[in-house]
Design a protein that fits this description.
The chain has helices at residues 8-21, 38-53, 65-74, 90-113, 153-161, 184-194, 225-234, 241-254, 269-275; strands at residues 26-30, 58-62, 81-82, 85-86, 118-120, 125-129, 132-133, 139-140, 146-151, 165-169, 171-173, 179-181, 199-204, 222-224, 259-263, 281-285. By secondary structure, it is of the alpha/beta class. It has one domain: Acetylglutamate kinase-like (Carbamate kinase). Strand 3 and strand 4 form a beta hairpin. It is globular, with a radius of gyration of 19 Å.
């Protein structure tokens, strides 16, 4: 007889870990390459559903960069980046809002099919237009790109109290009544901080923070904020990992207790965080 995949002892240990997480909020950011693989996305949503059923409250925040790029191409619009952000004019914004709302409804429908009530919550974030300047202190025009100034924490808390899963797209409402396009990592950080989350988890397309980007085995499992800032200065953390790590800093500063960077392309990497003493990824704490 073949050995079981999960021993009774390992199962009991996993249950203990999950019970210890009950009532401690987790904010999960889903986006980028992690959403391009349907199997990986399904595994993530099944993980969220499993946590919810075990009374671990979860808020799901999502982006949708690549689907937005495809929708813009279909509309004959060429995406343009300014200072690392998607330049968002009115035509682009219309596509961003439509695509993100479609993605959110799809995520809600899929989680509902797993027996968990998910709730589409597009109006929870409010914000202002993001203001950046170049090296000469001249204002950089980003269009309708925003930063989060307020999170509807009480409404989110009400949904969580009903044991439901809030699904929040990375959009914010401006005081003029229009939408703002918000970076999904920034949106997740704002939610995690406002809700004083126990964990904020960023699902990305790398195994975590690496000392050598060409070597997955060089993953750093744990960092303090001070250590991570030092690695940015030294250039070990560079490129697209910098804004992800900075989003971790923002979440920690706002009140989240820990921030994790996981490879969202790996099926059930999210659930691994709660089932094992060790997991593939990087955790950052203050």
């Amino acid at each position: 007889m073949a050995d079981p995949l999960l021993t009774a002892e390992a199962f009991a240990a996993a249950v203990d870990r999950l019970c210890a997480q009950r009532g401690r909020l987790v904010v999960v950011k889903l986006g980028g390459s992690a959403m391009e693989d349907p199997d990986a996305t399904d595994a993530c949503l099944k993980s969220v559903a499993a946590l919810n059923q075990l009374r671990v409250p979860v808020v799901l925040v999502h982006g949708g960069g690549k689907p937005i790029d495809r929708a813009m191409a279909e509309a004959g619009i060429t995406p343009r980046k300014v200072a690392g952000r998607r330049y968002t004019d009115d035509a682009t914004l219309e596509i961003v809002v439509r695509v993100l709302h479609e993605i959110a409804r799809g995520l809600v429908s899929r989680m509902n099919s797993f027996g968990v009530r998910a709730v589409f919550m597009p109006y929870q974030l409010t914000g202002n237009q993001l203001s950046l300047a170049d090296a000469d202190s001249r204002a950089i025009d980003l269009g309708r790109v925003g930063t989060v100034t307020d999170v509807g924490s009480s409404t989110i808390a009400q949904i969580l109290d009903q044991a439901d899963v809030p699904v929040i797209p990375s959009l914010a409402l401006h005081e003029d009544g229009g939408w703002l396009n918000v970076n999904a990592d920034t949106a997740a950080s704002a939610v995690a901080g406002a809700m004083q989350a126990d964990k904020v988890i960023f699902l990305t397309d790398t195994p975590g923070v690496l000392r050598d980007r060409a070597n997955p085995a060089s993953r750093i499992p744990s960092l303090t904020e001070r250590e991570a800032r030092s690695l940015i200065v030294s250039g070990v953390i560079d490129g697209g990992m910098v804004p992800k790590v900075e989003a971790c800093f923002e979440a920690l500063e706002a009140g989240a207790k820990s921030a994790l960077i996981l490879d969202g392309r790996v099926r059930f990497s999210l659930l691994d965080v709660f089932l094992h003493d060790t997991f593939t990824g990087t955790v950052i704490r203050r």
